[in-house]
Amino acid sequence: MLELRAITAGYERHAPVVRDFSLTVGPGEAVGLLGPSGCGKSTLARVAALLHRPDSGTLLLDGEPVRHWRHRAARAQRTAFGVVFQQPRLAADPRLRLAHLIAEPLYATGRRSEVPNRVTELASAVGLTPDLLTRRPHEVSDGQLQRACLARALVLRPRWLICDEMTAMLDASTGAALVAVVEAYRSTTGAALLAVGHDRTLLNRWCGRTVHWETSSEVPEAS
Question: Which residues have a Cβ under 8 Å from the Cβ of 145 and sit 6 or more positions away?
Answer without folding.
Answer: 88, 89, 92, 98, 137
